[in-house]
Automatic annotation (TrEMBL):
Species the sequence originates in: Rhinopomastus cyanomelas (Common scimitarbill)
Keywords, in A-Z order: Acetylation, Repeat, Ubl conjugation pathway, WD repeat
PANTHER family, per the entry: F-BOX/WD REPEAT-CONTAINING PROTEIN 2, F-BOX_WD REPEAT-CONTAINING PROTEIN 2
Pfam families: F-box-like (PF12937), WD40 (PF00400)
Function per UniProt: Substrate-recognition component of the SCF (SKP1-CUL1-F-box protein)-type E3 ubiquitin ligase complex.
Gene: Fbxw2
Repeat positions for WD: 144-183, 222-263
UniProt domain F-box: residue ranges: 54-101
Subunit details: Directly interacts with SKP1 and CUL1.
Protein name in the entry: F-box/WD repeat-containing protein 2
Amino acid sequence: MEKKDFEAWLDNISITFLSLTDLQKNETLDHLISLSGAVQLRHLSNNLEILLKRDFLKLLPLELSFYLLKWLDPQTLLTCCLVSKQWNKVISACTEVWQTACKNLGWQIDDSVQDSRHWKKVYLKAILRMKQLKDHEAFETSSLIGHSARVYALYYKDGLLCTGSDDLSAKLWDVSTGQCIYGIQTHTCAAVKFDEQKLVTGSFDNTVACWEWSSGAKTQHFRGHTGAVFSVDYNDELDVLVSGSADFTVKVWALSTGTCLNTLTGHTEWVTKVVLQKCKVKSVVHSPGDYILLSADKYEIKIWPIGREINCKCLKTLSVSEDRSISLQPKLHFDGQYIVCSSALGLYQWDFASYDILRIIKPPNFSNVSLLGFGEIFALLFDNRYLYIMDLRTEKLISRWPLPEYRKSKRGSSFLAGEMSWLNGLNGQNDMGLVFATSMPDHSIHLVLWKEHG
């Protein structure tokens, strides 16, 4: 057939083909395919590959590819990474997608990291850790053995755990190795706090003492309470030590001399927790940087402006409920911006600037659950059977870990949280070390530790 005749015939066929229904078009194509030889079928196959399998991620500008990828969930994106090397390269470089996915998992984001492919790796690490939490496989346990009587006082800082016991000793342990670094003779300890040089203890003998780690010598003795001292806190910058006692008072001491500067009254029950902290928010009565003292008894939390003047007056008294059922330590949290306390009625969070209750969290069976730590993303809780992690964005419990029959204490800190920074969001570096410690009936200390990443 001549080219001119062929083109006329093809135009006529095309017009007729376009007038057919879809079913008729399909039947026509099937018939033509059945009449085709190997050369025609190969030609058809090659052209269909180009027409039907166009790689849009390869053809589109990178910005448009990133925009489309943002609509897919991370698990689908991981599957798409298997399509080709080009797809894996483009998807891995979509920083915003992986950063958002990490944030949704409760992961901290360091925006200074410029490597775009870094964030996919971070997400893979995050999803593994969150799966371990969900499957209750993120932790492991160990024990510290060395005391010969009841361990009542516990305090943790920077990988070191201090324990105070009725055996008239205090010990400092390296949590990572389980080794005792220091052991000094003291009085019966109801509360402990330490730094590199010294140890401060509150005792059932109604006194507070300061000890030197290196020599074990007592450098100060604070006398004046008429009841057991259940909680202590101090600040070297202010040269102030505060103590809460079973005599219903809080005493303010000069840390360097042991002199009692003031006795704060108003509590009607044992003062079981004192917290000395810098304020982070501005209000009518305090500014960022002011030192604030919180003291708690069975019913109330009292707030004192300790940094402005020693002879301070109570700024505010907070109660959890009308039946005044506030819980005992260590269920009180204050970070300079929020006050959080657990009670039989729920977990209460106050805004420190206004003293308004921001929210009350009431998970199932909360009457038996106590607060250990509270952050921007997670809270650490426990009861008689389990350690719990709550996602504060959803107020749902996302993980739990079984606890042994630990020694119960109605008043003191025979249990405490370890590392706390992960409560503001995990980052792959802060999910290590101590999570929880509690004293046992056999005088050992039971530790719950982060398991290393798989």
